[in-house]
Amino acid sequence: MEGKVKQIIPRVHELYHRYGIKSVTMDDVSRHLGISKKTLYEFFTNKEDLVKQVMTWDYDRKLTFFLEIEQKKLNAVEELFEVYKMIKEMFRDFKPSVEYDIRKYYPTLFAQLREIKRKRMFELSMKNMTKGKQEGLYRSDLNASILARLHVFRVENIIESELFSVEELTSIKVFHEIFVYHLNGILSAEGREILDSSYKKFSRPA
What we know:
Blueprint: H1 2-19, H2 26-33, H3 37-43, H4 47-70, H5 76-93, H6 96-105, H7 107-134, H8 144-160, H9 166-169, H10 172-186, H11 189-196
């Protein structure tokens, strides 16, 4: 049964990504999969259970991408640029309607997923900042814990704020400015040399 679920979830994710969560019923899912609704309910208790498993799978999949960057044995600044390139790709596929549907129709699930995302984002940020300090590429007086939490806070609140339109939030230009702002706050003189030389191409959005 576990193998079947692993086959189903990516296909349901495609449906949610294309049409939003609210508009896709369990009947739609069963028709799309070519199975009966009775069979579908053998794998998932209800729609909320299905949504939870699909979104958890999506978060786990994205986390794997970030963990793969760690395996490349890059320095801390190089890691950030790899993250930058990856998030640019993710922005191209970002669907605000999916986030909206989870928040409005599944508030408990939204809170659970946000906590998972918050924890993972903090841990990854802490690892990178600690590494950057050890390498001398980030400010020696940098407080990794405070800045990691500030990073999580900034990401969460810019999405929830009404200061930016949906178009702006999904624009690579806005993300680029946030990225450069973050870099300028943490780099040491040595780290800035890397930014100014080897990665000069990142001084402007691609």
